[in-house]
Amino acid sequence: MLKRVPLWLTVLWLAGCNSLSTQLSTLLMILVAATFLLAAIGAVVTMVTNNSERRVASALIAFVALIAGVFFVVMLVA
Predict the structure, then answer these.
(1) Which of 1, 15, 58, 66 is the most exposed place for a label (fewest CB within 10 A)?
(2) Which residues have a Cβ under 8 Å from the Cβ of 30 and sit 6 or more positions away?
(3) 6 to each of 10, 59, 78, how far by Cα in Å?
(4) Phi, psi torsion values for 66, nearest 5 degrees
């Protein structure tokens, strides 16, 4: 029967990391890279979310300004 081996250990073994110190340092580099990638994805999501909220706020302000402008034009004409 085959024993189950963790995926991260298999990846490190396939990468040629045979000693424990090489495996640990490679695992640390993978974790740091994943942390940076997650931080970058979080920054992009935050940027898109804030931009979207600003777009909605800008559209709302433009809509209110349009209604106010039409109201003042109607008041001037009448």
Answers:
(1) 1
(2) 8
(3) 6, 51, 79
(4) -65, -45
Number of structural domains found in the chain: 1
The DSSP 8-state label assigned to residue 72 in this structure reads: H
Q: Are 45 and 59 in contact (CB under 8 A)?
A: no
Range of the domain at 66: 51-78
Report the C-alpha gap between 16 and 22 in whole angstroms.
9
pLDDT of residue 34: 67
Residue 2 lies in a domain: no
Per DSSP, the three-state class of 43 is: helix
CA dihedral sign, ordered 28, 31, 37, 43: negative
Residue 38 inside a domain? The answer is no
pLDDT confidence of residue 52: 64
